[in-house]
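Slide 14.
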Amino acid sequence: MNAYRLLLPLFISIIVLTSISGTAQEVSSPFLFGDALPDAPELAHRGDHKVGVRTIKLVNKDQVDILNSKDGVEARYDRPLTVEVWYPAVIPSDGKELVTYDEVLGMKGDPKRPLIPFTFQGRALRDASPMSDQGNFPLVIVSHGYVGSRFLMTYLTENLASKGYIVVAIDHTESTFRDAAPFPSTLLNRSKDVLFVLNEIADLGKADSKSFLAGIVNADQTGLIGYSMGGYGSLNAAGAGYSAGAIQFFTGMTGGSTALVERGHAHPDYRKSVDPRIKAVVAFAPWGMTQKVWDAEGLKGLKVPTFFVAGSEDDISGYETGIKAIFTGATETERYLLTYDNARHNVAPNPPPTAALKPGLHFDEYYRYAEPAWDQRRMNNINQHFVTAFLGTHLKGKDYTKFLKIKPNSNEETWPGFLPRAGTGLELLFAE
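Slide 15: predicted structure.
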């Protein structure tokens, strides 16, 4: 009882501060991925726009089919890509901003983890009419990990669309839960997929196209968001050319293929492939540095502002010699590193779906999403906050300095936008 009396004034002050700050939001019922918790930081909350969602099928013709290339002779194929697009939309009065996503547990080719279909809901309306009376919106391209899917980060894709972005998440062929294939396809195709999708969406967004995106996409202001292998590809697409060692590793793995050479910083055509429309990158736990995918020269090629997100105990991409080493080595640009203390690799995904909680499933169905030391919903809200601030700064020209250039240690004082006692266990480094 004494402890309760001592803490009561603190509880009251938190409630009052929440009300005054305007960050309190009634949690919807049922609680869906991306909804703001009571302690969500200020910019985590959804924006003013309603959200629509559609699926698009794309084909990148005449690409290297690395999985069927042999003895240095490269096969070719038309590479299919499915993308999901979230966008500001007009929701009719009798419409409901609710969508059902089709996903799977398991992974193709793993007998211990068979594919098990399941569904989960999100806050968007399937095939809603796009908002076309407010000009165009910056483009954000999202690239998942290996393996993964375009639905891995719906908490963030929906949130950004509600804030006035066209958000396009890629199903990377041969790298999803449903069609997982050997690793060389992922190594080769990640950055190429991203650049192809950028061109395709830019074309669909032209005013004279017959797409629902006509006139509402500002591809000249493009941001990339990549998680794990998606981070690996997004950094390369934005200017961080691969090292000679990475190319040699790929060549040995594929029996002599030189297909990755053109993505190396030493290749004369690599710099020409870096698209100037890319203005910002968010890299969640990017893979590759501990495998020497980049050297100092390659990292110097990254010249667009970049926001890294990492767990201090990442056991997949590595932290000190992995993600933090990329942050330290990318000396030619403004960059941030947000670190979740004691988190491992899963700093980006949705929380574990209900389907993954069923007794008897392989443990990795849960740990595909979950973090052992963090509430995933809280991490999602923190990610929404900082990604909003970072992309808003570099794609929309907003002044979010107070949320980004702050004291590094969140335990020393309450960060701007965070409620008292709600921001512990974080570090945000800044360099330029």
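Speaker note: The chain has eleven helices and 13 strands.
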